[in-house]
Write a structure and sequence with these properties.
CATH architecture of the largest domain: 3-Layer(aba) Sandwich
Largest sheet: 8 strands, mixed
Number of strands: 13
Order of helices and strands: HEHHHEHEHEEHEHEEEHHHEHEEEH
Oligomer: single chain
Number of helices: 13
Strand content: 5-15%
CATH superfamily of the largest domain: Type I PLP-dependent aspartate aminotransferase-like (Major domain)
Length: about 400
């Protein structure tokens, strides 16, 4: 029997391992994977970029790079973020090995065992795993269709005997809930945090994946609001807009936070892959990203519309959900006496997988929801998957009526 550390006992880390297996399982109709479909990747463009690189830059691809990131990519990211209204002039960019590493760096930078972190409920399972591994005390606040519950947030902060280190939120096309915070809710959140000293960790992996150009303004980052008395750390990712295999993310923060974060990253992996940074930089610098995003938005809208249509056709009336305006996910609500883990046990035997609601609950208890991802699903499999899921839920509803009568 080995004397493992407490850090390896994260329930949510186990959930992630299961999730990755489900997402990549062969011969499955998988609504589990929060990832792009393989057929959508810009393979030809990346081929062309690599072939056209000068010999000295190709050699640089194989070398170590600066811990803070490949300088040309930082410059390209500054332009990209500036167009989104983010204050790049008075902040610093740190390139990370995926945005999850940015979350891990920030957690290591600020959190000691037993410190409090505030999250939404539900919350991104990867972040929950990081927080648990750090030994943090996680307190969660419910969300509704417009964002975090402001009254519950105020009440939670007032009830605590010590100041939380930060509040972690995913305001744009939330994972797993699929919602986007309204501009009003974003302002209210900043008002609540104003003067408290609680840092806001704003995780923004999906804001480029809006479905309607007229609603692009809703994706505006809170870090771009210009609020001076709330410290905001902004994280982003290339995983949803270029490819998860690039393992590229970034954080934008004040100079002081950046310097400590750079030190933490140095101890983690020294630097992010130069190879991937160089390819991503040219993709941005050659203005290939926006045309590719236009293509992705159309593809994901088609998939979302198909899933929405088949859910409306086949799901029993007791099941509800909010139709997303972007991103990857639809979050189904079951009647309280039906558990998504029970539904999963039956659908997996019929070749359909999704992610259970319990996975995204910081306490790993609330299980009346399930997440369906439409991003990775081949369009021709969506209806069959929904039918199997719907029939399973109908049987569970029927059984519960019989047992209650």
């Amino acid at each position: 029997m080995y004397a493992f550390s407490r850090a390896v006992n994260s329930m949510h880390s186990e959930d992630i391992k299961q999730l990755m297996k489900q997402a990549s399982g062969k011969n499955l109709i998988s609504f589990a994977g929060g990832m792009p479909n393989n057929d959508l990747f810009p393979v030809d463009q990346i081929d062309d970029i690599y072939k056209s690189l000068p010999e000295d830059i190709k050699k640089l691809c194989f070398q170590y790079g600066p811990t803070s990131g490949y300088p040309p990519l930082i410059k390209s990211l500054e332009s990209y973020l500036k167009e989104k209204g983010l204050p790049v002039g008075e902040n610093r960019i740190l390139i990370t090995t995926g945005s999850l590493q940015a979350i891990a760096i920030i957690t290591q930078e600020f959190v000691n065992e037993g410190d409090i972190i505030l999250t939404e409920n539900p919350s991104f399972v990867g972040a929950l795993s990081v927080f648990e591994t750090a030994g943090a005390e996680i307190h969660s606040i419910p969300i509704d269709k417009d964002g975090i519950d402001i009254k519950a947030l105020k009440s939670k902060i007032a009830s605590l005997d010590r100041k939380p280190k930060f509040l972690y939120v995913t305001p744009n096309y939330h994972n797993p809930a699929g919602i986007i915070y309204t501009p009003e809710r974003k302002k209210q959140l900043l008002e609540v945090l104003s003067g408290t000293g609680i840092i806001l960790l704003e995780d923004d992996a999906y804001s480029d994946l809006y479905f309607n150009e007229d609603e692009k303004h809703l994706t505006r980052s809170m870090k771009s609001f210009g609020v001076e008395n709330v410290e905001i750390i902004y994280t982003g990712s290339f995983s949803k807009i270029l490819g998860p295999g690039f393992r590229l993310g970034f954080m934008l923060s004040s100079e002081e936070i950046f310097e400590k974060a750079e030190t933490v990253k140095q101890s983690m992996d020294a630097c992010t892959s130069n190879f991937m940074q160089i390819l991503a930089n040219d993709f941005l610098a050659q203005h290939k990203l926006e045309p590719y995003l236009t293509f992705l938005r159309k593809e994901y809208l088609e998939r979302k519309n198909l899933l929405q249509k088949h859910l409306k056709t086949h799901m029993p009336k007791e099941i509800t959900w909010n139709e997303p305006k972007g991103g990857f996910y639809i979050w189904l609500k079951l009647p309280p006496h039906i558990k998504s883990t029970d539904i999963f046990k039956e659908t997996v035997s019929k070749g359909v997988v999704f992610v259970t609601g319990r996975t995204f609950d910081p306490a790993s208890k609330k299980d009346d929801r399930l997440r369906l991802s439409f991003s990775n699903m081949p369009k021709e499999h969506i209806e069959k998957g929904v039918i199997i899921l719907s029939e399973t839920i109908k049987r569970a509803l029927q059984s519960s009526k019989i047992s209650l009568s």
